[in-house]
User: Fold this.
Amino acid sequence: MRFSLLAASAAAVLAVPVALAAAGPQLSQDEFISAVRCVAFDDISGADAGLGAAKWRLNVEAARQPEAAVAAARAEVRAIAAGEEARPAQACEVA
Assistant:
């Protein structure tokens, strides 16, 4: 009984991201890249409030986005991590 409950729970945990990835993009490419930038800036600044959940949502959204948008977002993150980009004047809100 316990094994079947654990197996069903594990299957549900694995199935949720797959089911979410099957849907189309929820963000436009520009919104996606902007959200990735905000999380990257918050990550390097040490603001850890909710970043784990935000990163998970962005990873799920990345599966829905075109490869070009994902590649652009990764390039933005690399530039931010390398200190090549300054934090934008407008505030970022991580949902």
